[in-house]
Amino acid sequence: MGAHPPYYTHLAQRWFDGEPPLTPAQAHELELHLLICPVCAYATAQRLMADEPAEAQRLMAEAVAMLRGNRLIAYLRDLAETMYAGR
Hints:
Elements: H1 6-17, H2 24-36, H3 38-48, H4 53-66, H5 69-73, H6 76-85
Helix pairs in contact: 1-2, 2-3, 3-4
């Protein structure tokens, strides 16, 4: 799987900060990414927890649902490397 593309992290940061605002196309792209990326879904849920707990819980549930079968396989190498490195 390799490193996570910084593009989506940057979009999420802009979404939270509102500066500069996301275009409708970028907002839609971020929404789609959150549906397929447990890393970003989890990070977004963590940031939303204090202000929007219902939305945070929904994203957290989606992130957990992504950690099944064939979706998890793509992350196994990164997980093994992280565990081996003690992080």
